[in-house]
Amino acid sequence: MVTAYDFPSAVHLDMAGIDICLVGNSAAMVVHGHDTTLPITLDEMLVHCRMVAASARYLSGTCRLVAMSPALISFDCEQAVDAAVRILKEGGMDVIKLEGGAPSKIIAAKAIVEAGIAVMGHVGLTPQAISVLGGFRPQGRNVDSAVKVAETSLALQEAGCFAVILECVPPHVAAAATSALKIPTIGIGAGPFCSGQVLVYHDLLGILQHPHHAKVTPKFCKHYASVGDVINKALVQYREEVSNGSFPSSTHSPYKINAADTEGFLQALEKLVLGDAASAATDAARKIEATS
Predict the structure, then answer these.
(1) What does the longest C-alpha to C-alpha distance in the chain come to?
(2) From edge to edge, which strands make up the β-sheet containing 185-188?
């Protein structure tokens, strides 16, 4: 599983054979530029969902679309179900992801499932609860916290979740939870013993180069490419070529006007008392011809 927030990234995921596309609230950080995932709204998430869903007509059909709704963070059951319905109907998603394992979240997950909507749970480090967790802090690092990870995962399974994400927990805690569950686990910073893995698109591709991003990129993330460096190099080269006049050359100036129409155009400019413009057009034609 990999995150995607727009049409191009979703197409790339499908071309690579990624099983699940997650429209995550991480968009708040890697797309919107916020320091946390908290500021993004349901309406904003729906925009990203629709962009990703628009790719479906071009996809192979094997990549499932999952969306996380930030609106579910504080909604009661009725509101949670309404938000989940919007994600499927307006956003075009297949299922929704719900963070947290508080009793209210378990109840909300059960209500959404009973409404006929598949739910993926999420325990461990839950970014929407950082004010309670004291920041982006790993979980399951003491007895009580580790037991809570396992118990919450089982509660989400009992509520009807079809899978659970385990984020930022020790590998053996994730292994225990995976063993205890009958549903798949998807790890992120949880070691190699989960049923599957998920990473943020921008992180694994090394897209962003901003100092803030370097500060918040998780330690568990592996960079499979340095796409940001490639982008920056291309942009610098473009700026330099525009500045020195080497772009666009005749190769990238493909649209032609024949000699008769060129002459007629120059005569029309002269009649409009635009002699300087006619001279500029003549000089441009000579330069393009010289470099063709």
Answers:
(1) 89
(2) 2-3, 20-23, 64-68, 95-99, 119-124, 163-167, 185-188, 196-197
> Which pLDDT belongs to residue 132?
47
CA 228 to chain centre: 15
Give the alpha-carbon dihedral of 161, 66, 204, 156, to 10 degrees.
Answer: -10
Report residue 114's pLDDT band, with 50, 70 and 90 as the boundaries. Answer: very high
Would you state the structure tokens that stand for residue 245, as one six-digit string? 């006049």
Neighbours of 63 (CB within 10 A): 24
| 292/258: higher pLDDT | 258
How many residues appear in the chain?
292
pLDDT in tens, 34-82: 888 888 999 999 999 999 999 877 776 666 778 776 645 556 788 889 9
Name the active-site residue from 99, 151, 158, 167: 167
Going by C-alpha positions, the residue among 199, 129, 195, 142 that lies closest to residue 169 is 142
Distance separating alpha carbons of residues 218 and 179, to the nearest angstrom: 26
CA separation for the pair 113, 219 (Å, rounded): 34
Q: How many percent of the chain have pLDDT more than 70?
A: 89
Q: Is 167 a catalytic residue?
A: yes
Residue of 54, 46, 74, 36 lying closest to 215 (CA atoms): 36
- pLDDT over 90 (residue 85): yes
Cis bond leading into 218, ω under 30°?
no
